[in-house]
Every structure is written in C-alpha cells, then in structure tokens.
Design brief:
Layout: H1 8-22, H2 30-34, H3 38-44, H4 48-52, H5 76-91, H6 99-123, H7 127-152, H8 160-173, H9 179-191, H10 213-220, H11 231-238, H12 243-258, H13 262-308, H14 324-331, E1 334-335, H15 339-345, H16 351-356, H17 365-379, E2 385-386, H18 388-412
Parallel strand pairs: 1-2
Helix pairs in contact: 1-9, 5-17, 6-7, 7-8, 7-13, 8-13, 10-18, 11-18, 12-13
GO molecular function: oxidoreductase activity, acting on paired donors, with oxidation of a pair of donors resulting in the reduction of molecular oxygen to two molecules of water
Keywords: Fatty acid biosynthesis, Fatty acid metabolism, Lipid biosynthesis, Lipid metabolism, Membrane, Oxidoreductase, Transmembrane, Transmembrane helix
Subcellular location: Membrane
C-alpha cells in the first residue's frame, strides 16, 4: 500500500474546501483557479508551489467560453484592488510570524495550568480553591483554543508539517479535541462564512433562526421547532452553557471513532490521562469528571460570546456569489483594539482581516487593518468596528430581531 506524502491529506482537505468555494460549475479549468479565483486559493495555501501539483488530477474538462459564471455578483475592480493589497501585505512581511510571540503565549497557558494545580495542592479542594482553579483552567482552555487556531491556519511556521504537529499537540494534548475535526468544520466556515448549507457554524439544528431570510422562510412554512420569538432569551440556557460540554464534546468523540482517526484519538486520550491523573487524587473519579465539565461550561461561555460577536450579527443568507473581498466583509465585523480585547479574543477582534488573510499571523492583523479600511472606503463597502460591550449586546439584538421576523411571518404570511 502506498502512503500519502506528509501533509497530503491536509492539503487535499484544504483543496476540497477551496474548490467548493471557487466553483460550482460542471467543469473546472486550472487557469481559472490561478486567475479569477486566486484570492480564495491564496487565502488557504501559503505554499502555492506544493499544492498546485495536486490540481492536475482534478482537471475534468475546460469551462466553455459561453458558460455563465456563477460569480455573477463579483466586482472585478474590487478583486483587482484586493490583490494589490495582498501583494502590499506580502511586501511588508506581514505573513512572517514572530515565534517569540507564540512561544510566550504557549508559556502563559502552561503557567495557568501550573497555577491551577498549585492552588488545589496548597489550599486544598474546598469550594473557594475549586472555583478559583476552575476559572484559571477555563482561561487556560480558552487561550489554548486561540493558540490552536493559529497553528490550524498554518500561520506560525513556514513549513506546513510543523504547523500540523504543533496543532495536534495543542488541540489534542492541551484541549482533548481533534485537529481533523476542527479542520473539517473551520475551513468550510472560512470558505463560505454565514452561507446556509455551506457554513456549518450557521447550522443551528432548528434551535435558532438566523439572519433575515431563514426566519421568514421558517415562518412562511409554519415551522415551529421552538418558540423562536423567545430565542434571545433561551439563548442563555442552551447556547453558551451547552455548546462545548455537550454538542462539541459529543461531535468530537463520535467523529474520531466513526472516521477511525486514531492519531487524534491518541492525542485526546493523552489529555484525559493527564487531567485525571492530576485531579482524581483531589476529587475522586466522579468529582474530577464533574469538575472537568464545569471547566468546559465556563469555557463555552467565553468561546460562544467571542465567536458569535463577529458573525451572527452580520448578513446570514443563501449563496450570493460575490467576490472574495465583498463576501468576507458582509459576514464579519471587528471589535476595537486594546490589549485586553486582543488577549480576550485571541486577536479575533480583527475578524475582518483574519478572514481576508487566514494565514497571516494574528499579531500582524492590526497592521493590515488600515489598508483594508482604505479599500473599503474606496469602493463604498461598510467596514464595521465596534466596542466590545456593544458587540456582545448585538448578539442578543440580532437574535431578537430574527425571532420577531419569524413570528410575523408565522402569523401573517
């Protein structure tokens, strides 16, 4: 049996998401991938020479000149200007990572885990030390989540292989999750953010209705899985509290088992082994298990509020077939920069720039932001940036607005 070269499996996965995002045609011409859709291709592939050789077996024919393009909403001038912007960012070395930054970030995660253990070891397992430790470990888990995100996007090392190894270590050994599961979800999200049936992050399993189109469609069809006019209220009960400890946890474990992803499963087992060896002596088996779920309960709140403040408040609709730049701006918004906001959100307060340049190291996103703002101003594209508190409150306002649209359509259409 022949073995795939290192990185081939990951490259093919990225290729799949790229190709899904750049074409829905019956045929594919590689020249098109290198020209009209090169923005998407460049966004996902830092090493173009390596991945282009995988395009050849995918050629199934040439697109006829008279074949209508599905990118009917594309603005050619915006596309051209964006490529100039990207070239400027490359010339400014904004895709070059500061390795000290990421090492210090990893060090502060390890320091938090050490502080958590020492708190229980020194002060005992009473309620106050336990609560302090839980919050410290939730902070460590949240920050590890932002760090694995960096390596998952290949934004730290020049060689993809080293990013993959670090990614598996951080998401597997430090968090007990699966790198392949994350890749499969997250790159679909990046290719088509906020697009129904293409972005898994807006697949709410009928628990919420999002945007303007979906609630009206549900209302017209008299679909009422839940009282959506109250979704801004029950969001606090089933959104932040349950996403990581229930839904993600189940999905991650089942994905690794069903897909027989034994490497990721081994990494995850190493996390659970380390955790239970550390905390069973203080809490026993059942206590340690309850403690773990409480930590994930806390982390889940942090994760949900940060990730949704940039997306759920933006346009969520069916495929509009726009150019790369315009599609990312319509689905993302920023939160004002500060030291706390950068740390708290893992620099995802620069969500616009991150979506435009997913392989750019996060510590450089603020440097490219003025160029992005300038391009938006030139073409009359809205660049949304808001304070942190307003961004968080907008989540609830957005859910309430969508719920009201559903109720109106349900009763009157």
């Amino acid at each position: 049996m022949t073995r795939e070269p290192p990185g081939c499996r990951r490259v093919n996965s990225l290729m799949l998401y790229t190709l899904r995002s750049i074409t829905s045609h019956r045929s594919l011409r590689p020249e098109r991938c290198a020209t009209s859709s090169q923005d998407v291709f460049h966004a996902f592939h830092p090493n173009l020479k390596f991945v282009r050789k995988f395009l050849k077996p995918l050629l199934i024919g040439e697109l006829a000149p008279e074949e209508p393009s599905q990118d009917r909403g594309k603005n050619s001038q915006v596309t051209e200007d964006f490529r100039v912007l990207r070239k400027t960012a490359e010339d400014m070395n904004l895709f070059k990572a500061n390795h000290v930054f990421f090492l210090l970030h990893l060090a502060h995660i390890i320091a938090l885990e050490s502080i958590a253990w020492f708190t229980i070891f020194y002060f005992g397992n009473g309620w106050i030390p336990t609560l302090i430790t839980a919050f410290v470990l939730a902070t460590s888990q949240a920050q590890a989540g932002w760090l694995q995100h960096d390596y998952g996007h290949l934004s730290v090392y020049r060689k993809s292989m080293w990013n993959h190894i670090a990614h598996k270590f951080i998401i597997g050994h430090l968090k007990g999750a699966s790198a392949n599961w994350w890749n499969h979800r997250h790159f679909q999200h990046h290719a088509k953010p906020n697009i129904f049936q293409k972005d898994p992050d807006v697949n709410m399993l009928h628990t919420f209705v999002l945007g303007e189109w979906q609630p009206i469609e549900y209302g017209k069809k008299k679909l009422k899985y839940l009282p959506y006019n109250h979704q801004h209220e029950y969001f606090f009960l089933i959104g932040p509290p349950l996403l990581i400890p229930v839904y993600f946890q189940y999905q991650i474990i089942m994905t690794m088992i069903v897909r027989k992803d034994w490497v990721d499963l081994a990494w995850a087992i190493s996390y659970y082994t380390r955790y239970f060896v550390t905390y069973i002596p203080f809490y026993g088996i059942l206590g340690a298990l309850l403690f773990l779920n409480f930590i994930r309960f806390l982390e889940s709140h942090w994760f949900v509020w940060v990730t949704q403040m940039n997306h759920i408040v933006m346009e969520i609709d069916q495929e509009p077939y726009r150019d790369w730049f315009s599609s990312q701006l319509s689905a993302t918004c920023n939160v004002e920069q500060s030291f706390f906001n950068d740390w708290f959100s893992g620099h995802l307060n620069f969500q616009i720039e991150h979506h435009l340049f997913p392989t750019m190291p996060r510590h450089n996103l603020h440097k490219v932001a003025p160029l992005v703002k300038s391009l938006c101003a030139k073409h009359g594209i809205e660049y949304q940036e808001k304070p942190l508190l307003r961004a968080l409150l907008d989540i609830i306002r957005s859910l309430k607005k969508s719920g009201e649209l559903w109720l109106d359509a349900y009763l009157h259409k």
